[in-house]
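Milestone 3.1: sequence recovery, worked example.
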């Protein structure tokens, strides 16, 4: 059975954009796990203070890794890296 996500060191690199910054990430890797070593640690801001939040549980329970993809708010820990992704960090309103 083929694994759902690739290891960060496996496979070809693809280009994505995060808040306008172009980044190379391993294709098929877990998005949240791949963004962290690329230096992206703020995925969204809290509703009350705007304090930075990033991946915490890595299994979809905490919602701290919310990002926007094509106008839709999604959990980065539940996504795979795909070429051409254009992501935005979630603001305090997400």
């Amino acid at each position: 059975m083929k694994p759902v996500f690739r290891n960060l060191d496996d496979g070809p690199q693809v280009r994505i954009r995060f808040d306008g910054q172009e980044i190379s990430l391993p294709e098929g890797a877990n998005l949240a796990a791949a963004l962290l070593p690329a230096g992206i640690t703020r995925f969204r801001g809290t509703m009350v203070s705007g304090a930075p939040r990033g991946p915490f549980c890595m299994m979809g329970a905490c919602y701290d890794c919310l990002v926007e993809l094509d106008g839709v708010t999604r959990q980065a820990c539940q996504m795979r890296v795909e070429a051409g992704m254009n992501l935005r960090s979630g603001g305090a309103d997400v």
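The domain at 13-89 is CATH 3.10.20.440 (Ubiquitin-like (UB roll)). The first strand starts at residue 13 and ends at 18.
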